Structures are given as structure tokens and as C-alpha cells.
Amino acid sequence: MRLSHFLAGVSVAGVSAAGFAMPVMAQTAPPAAQAPAATETLREAMVKAYNTNPDLSSERASLRAADEDVPIARSRGLPGVSSTGRYSENLHDSDSSGLSSPRQGSAGLSLSVPVYSGGAVRNSVRAAETRVEAGRAGLRSVEAQMFTDVVAVYLDVIRDEAIVRLNQQNVRVLEVNLQATRDRFEVGDLTRTDVAQSEARLALAQSQLRGAEASLISSRERYIRVVGTPPGVLATPPALPNLPAGPDQAVTVALEDNPALDAAKKARDASGYDVNVARAGRLPQVSVGVNGDYYNRFGAVPTRGQAAGLANDGFATSAGVNLTLPLFQGGRPAAQVRQAQARQSAAIEQVTSAERGVIAQTRSAYAVWQSAQRVIESSTLAVSANRLSLEGVRAENSVGTRTILDILNAEQELLNSQVQLVTAERDAYVAGFAVLAAMGRAEAEDLGLDGGPLYDPVANYNRSRRSFSDWRDGPAPEPQATRTTDTPAQTPVVSGPVDPVGSN
Q: Which of 269, 302, 442, 498 has the greatest number of beta carbons closer than 10 A?
């Protein structure tokens, strides 16, 4: 199953349309309202980010700049044509014989054809082409990281909305509890201590709600930063396909397909060509040149000069072979070779560093994913047990064997287990996607986005490498990413049912 199918809308088992699956607190609450229809899916959020994210647009522009290094390097091995023009006026010459012209103009055309450059041009072109390939791999890496960020902010909003709903419900329940406690205190059934405990727990719940609302606002603002638009009612994310059976399998795939590692390998290969370019600095260079000049003295040749055979205008042409053989350059070529070799050594070590990073990233993401799966299992059991415990404590309180504090503690434990569950579900999904990204399976082509044609990095390269015109500029740069200055400040308002999921 391809990742493109994963975005087709397959729902995660046990997750509601309003967010992650959340067991409801077994307390008195208003009837559940109908969950609003989703207005944005994870696929749509990814398409928006793919088309408007500034980090991705910047990386594409950087790759287009790298594309131009290929024709720049190739131009050093192509023929060059230049023209010259000159006009001079002889103001005073104490040695003048009276035969020369006092003024003269000339126009010339020269053609130079490089024949041999010690391999500098060939290796420069290969280095540039290899760096273009490294840039493409880097673009893939930025794409994968951006999609990972989209998944993270998308799930952050869903998680924090669920936590806000849970805390809102907790506050409402504690308000009902406080009122009931006060009523029982008025009739002498409870003490002032019971009322104080209920008041303190309600104040704590209200402060927790304010913190949850602040976290939701932050998550929504991060969503705007990554996706470019405010989040609507987010649909349930689909299930992640083809997750590896173990960390070793994930690492094996990542070492083959991870784009960051591929980019480091291409950069290493390019540095090898740079060494050969530096070595060409001490080899002979041969070129062939042809020059043609037309001169005109504007009829200013005196009679004596004409009699001596000096013409008013004429042509002059020449051709020759230029050979440059470096004999001594003060040690510069050897220093340049050593410098290139040191940079090659650095590039080799960077491959090892990237490889280590990929291994650690893949194993860590897999471990987080596995851990979150276990937390989901234990938290689900904890929620079920805490719900039963709360029901039992309430029943026992009604016969006088449990105190109000016991009820408040049971309510808090249920809330904590519910928050832990929705947090673990978020962590599991984000970590699972991070595993796929580390394996090189979370890029635009893998996801099968259908929000328009995908960016083709080869198209600009093909246009550039076939262009030999000195006057073919590119289009004037214009902003590609959308600005977010007009988006409203986010609020902690959540839509959906009072009871996020309903009784289990």
C-alpha cells in the first residue's frame, strides 16, 4: 500500500471524526451534540503546504541556482566571440614625420576556441552536475521534513482540541460537584472542609483549562506557520501504511532511500571532481584564436602618407595557436589541490555523520512509535479502570464510606489518564510518520498529492543546460509562498460535542 493510498481517507480504528478516541468521564454532563463535519483533511493541509510553504519554495529556488552552475562550468570549454572598437585623435606628436594620420578608428572581431584545459572544464561540469543531483536529494529531504511538520501540527491541533474539551467537561462536572457539596453542607450532611476541597479542585481545573487553551492557541498558530491558513474542523487522519516490522528493517530501507544521506553522498562525489579541477591548474592549456580588424583613418592621411602607401582604410586578419605552460606559480596549484583534498575528506566524513544521523533518527522514531503504542494500550485500560473506579467511589460516597476528596481524586485520575491517552495517540501517529520519512517514503511523489502538478526539478535544469544565449534571463522573481499577515489571531474556541466521544 502506497502512502498515496494512506491519504485517500482511510480512518484510524478507534478515532472519532472530532479527534482522537477519548473515553468520556463518567459524570453528569449535558447530552452530546452532533460533531461538526470536517472542513479540512490531512491531504488538503499537505497540498496547501506543498504549494505555499516558504521553506520549500526557498529550497526550490536554491536548486534552480545550482542548476545554473552546469552551463557556467560548460561555458569555459565553449568558443568565445568578442568585438572591440577604438577611436583615437592625435593631439600632438613632436616626432611626427607628417606621414601618419592624425585620427584613426578601428573595429575588430575575435574568436577563441579552447582546445585543452587539463581536464578542468570536464571535471567542473561533472562536479556541477553531481551537486545538482545533491540539490535534488536535498529538496526531497526538505519536502519530507515539511510533510512531517504538517503531520505534527495537524495532530497537535487535534490533540489540544481534545484536551480542551476534556478540561471543559471536567470544569463543568466540578462546578456541579461544588454546588452539590454546598447544598449538602447547608443541610449539615458535609463539612466546610468538603466545600473547601471542592472549591480548590475547581480552581485547579480552571487553571488547567486555561493552560490547555493556551496550548491550543499555540498549536493553531504553528499550523498557520506551516500550512499557511488557519485550521478548520480537522478530519481524522488516515491510518499509516507499511510501517516496518522492526527497527532493523527501517534502518535498512533508510540507508538506501533517505534523501539527506543521498545528498551527502552526492556532495562527496562532487568534491572528488573538485580535486581534479585543482590539479588542472598546473597542466598546459591550449586554445586557437582568429582575429579580424577593420580600420579607418577618416580621410585624414596626408598626401605624403598616401604617396608612401598609407591607406585611409583596410582590413587586418590573424590566426594563431596559444599555448600556456605553467612552470612556477609560487606553490598555488599544490595548495589548491591540498585544499580540495581536505574538503573531499570533510565531505567523506559528512557522509558518515549523515549515516549516523539517519540510523539514530530512524531507530529513535521507531522506538517512540512503539512506546506510544504501549502507552495507548495501558492508557486505554487505565481510562476504563478509572471510570469504573469513579463510579464506585460515587456509589460508596452515597452510603458514607467514601469522602468528597476521594471523588475529586478519582475525577482527576480519570482526566489525567484521558489526557495521557490522546497525547499518546498523537505521539504514535507523528512518530510513525517520522519513521516513514526517515525511510524516504514521505515525499510528494510517495504521497500522491493531487492539488495540481508536482514541482519538477528537472524541467528547469533541462532549460538551463540547453541555453547558450548570453541574453536569456529568467523571469523576475516573485513571491511564491503565501503570507499570513491577514490571518486572524487564533482563539481557544473548540467546536464539536460537549462529550468528545460518548460513553463507552
A: 442
Residue 503 neighbours by CB distance under 10 Å? 11
Contact 16, 501 (CB under 8 A): yes
Better pLDDT: 5 or 450 = 450
In this structure, the number of other CB atoms found within 10 A of the CB of residue 308 comes to 12
**Predicted confidence band of residue 470 (pLDDT cuts 50, 70, 90):** confident
Q: Which domains does the chain have, with CATH numbers?
A: 3-67+117-282+348-465 (1.20.1600.10)
Calpha distance 461→463 (Å, rounded):
5
Question: Helices 42-52 and 54-67 sit at what angle, rounded to 10 degrees?
Answer: 50
Strands (E), 234-385: 285-296, 313-324
Residue 247 grid cell: 527497527
Average pLDDT, the chain: 86
pLDDT grade for 307, boundaries at 50, 70 and 90: low
Residue at 216: amino acid letter: L
What is the DSSP-derived secondary structure letter of residue 280? G
Contacts of 448 (CB under 8 A, 6+ apart): 2, 3, 4, 5, 7
pLDDT at residue number 97 = 59
Closest CA to 249 of 333, 369, 82, 363: 363
**Lowest pLDDT segment from 257-261, 281-285, 446-450, 459-463:** 446-450
Q: How many CB atoms lie within 10 A of CB 219?
A: 21
Largest interatomic CA distance in the chain: 140
- Res. 49: pLDDT tops 50: yes
The Cβ-side half-sphere exposure at 458, using a 13 Å CA radius, reads 1
